[in-house]
Amino acid sequence: MVDLIVLGGGPAGYLAAERAGAAGLSTVLIEKDKLGGVCLNEGCIPSKTLLNSAKIFEHAMHGQAYGVTAENVRLDQPAVIKRKNKVVKKLVAGIAATLKSGKTVIKNGTGTILGRENGVIRVGVGDEVMEGKKLLIATGSEAIVPPIPGVREGLADGSVLTNREILDLETIPESLVVVGGGVIGLEMAGYFQTVGSKVTVIEMLDHIAGNADREISAALQAAFAKQGITFHLGCQVTGIGGGQVTFKDKDATRQVAADKVLLSVGRRPVTRGIGLENIGVFVERGRIVTDRQGLTNVPDVYAAGDVNGTWMLAHAAYREAEVVVNTILGKKDTMRYQAMPSVIYTNPEMAFVGETEETCRDKQLPFRKVVLPMNFSGRYMAENEGGTGLIKLLIDTERERILGCHLLGSYASEIILAVGFLIETEMKLPEIRELIFPHPTVGEIIREAVFHT
């Protein structure tokens, strides 16, 4: 019998196994496919590899603005995919090597929870039965496939893609319709528009980027529209097939050409078919409910990552996994979500942390806002000809601290970390004004915004 069984080898699962093994816990990690989960194999890393290639391509195409002229610039899509696969393979191998250096045993196969008796949890993997004192469920999430007429047929013939298939596409489609204006949809819309597709985004909501601050998401939409992406908001897709997508808006039924269609309408936790009912784990609206230590309603059974449906982000999964392992080890730890950063790796990048203007109003928080163009940063101006980036800070007017920050522009994904620290530590504005930022950096925009509050 082992100390810990981990079901799922994505960010939450493999990091928990790594931390547990390093702490001396005998651990079994069960993964049905590839280590790294969706993030490493079909999401975060492969998409960023493609997006970096698009950024280099765009720089070469528009270098004249910076005094650099290039001729016969082209993007080799098969070479981009080949490099993506190389990066993923190397990272997966690195995870496997790290796990094997500790006290973790990796089992390849589909794990099924069989039962829990006398404090012993049993999980089946093929013909084997694993027994453990503790169980961490980290089965992740899967793409939602909506019941739109033509979707199943499109998935079968390759004209309809999910986040998995589009990252292996070696031919640039002449036209791409993205169903859903969330993170994955926007990142892939940006990539394929840059490399030559005519991209259309169809979204049911009246805005893109989900729960992001509306002012910033509107600015991103404007930047994308300038690049040539067409948006149809407040629309419902009613059919796919025959090289076109049919959708309804408030006035009429319309159609748009589509060589390929990307389904990007969200993800749902993987909770079915893993045996949760055999030990009575409570599932609400498809997600496993946990407390702030990751504990479910069943003693010694934990859940972390996308499967708990709290924040479907790899970095949230990492931290949740650490909290679970620390709790198992008897160390006091708790999960905090008030400073959870989010990033959309479009060009320009969009990043945010903390409250939005909408949530401030919903919660009746006393706040004021400051919005500045990124051009207040000298480095931003030096590197972004005609850039339209901005920063938005939301300030607690009673406690004089930052409630939220929203960025649009280069390096936003790196800069947002600093504001997350300021929110997490509840640092007051006078204290922030005393901090020294390196010059020239785009990150100085935080200091500028604080001094404009």
Give the biggest beta sheet: 7 strands, mixed
Question: How large, in whole angstroms, is the Cα Rg?
Answer: 23 Å
**Count of DSSP H/I helices:** 14
CATH class group of the largest domain:
Alpha Beta
Give a quick summary of the entry:
The chain is α/β, with parallel strands linked by helices.
Question: What topology emerges from the helices and strands here?
Answer:
Layout (H helix, E strand, L loop, with lengths): L1 E6 L3 H12 L4 E5 L5 H6 L1 H18 L15 H24 L3 E5 L2 E7 L2 E6 L2 E10 L3 E3 L7 H7 L2 E2 L1 H4 L8 E5 L3 H12 L3 E6 L10 H14 L2 E4 L2 E6 L2 E5 L4 E5 L2 E4 L3 E3 L13 E2 L2 E2 L12 E3 L10 H15 L13 E3 L5 E5 L2 H6 L4 E7 L4 H6 L6 E7 L4 E8 L3 H13 L4 H5 L10 H8 L2
Parallel strand pairs: 1-2, 1-6, 2-3, 6-19, 8-15, 9-10, 9-15, 10-11
Antiparallel strand pairs: 4-5, 5-6, 7-16, 12-13, 13-14, 17-18, 20-21, 21-24, 22-23, 23-24
Helix pairs in contact: 1-9, 3-4, 3-7
Summary tags:
24 strands; 7-stranded mixed sheet; FAD/NAD(P)-binding domain; Enolase-like, domain 1
Description:
With 453 residues, the chain is an alpha/beta fold. It has three domains: 2-143 and 268-328, FAD/NAD(P)-binding domain, CATH 3.50.50.60; 151-265, FAD/NAD(P)-binding domain; 342-451, FAD/NAD-linked reductase, C-terminal dimerisation domain (Enolase-like, domain 1). Helix content is 33%, strand content 26%. The strands form six sheets. Strands 1, 2, 3, 4, 5, 6 and 19 form a seven-stranded mixed beta sheet that branches. β23 (390-396) and β24 form a beta hairpin. α3 runs antiparallel to α4 and α3 packs parallel to α7 (183-194). It is globular, with a radius of gyration of 23 Å. The model has no long low-confidence stretch (mean pLDDT 97).
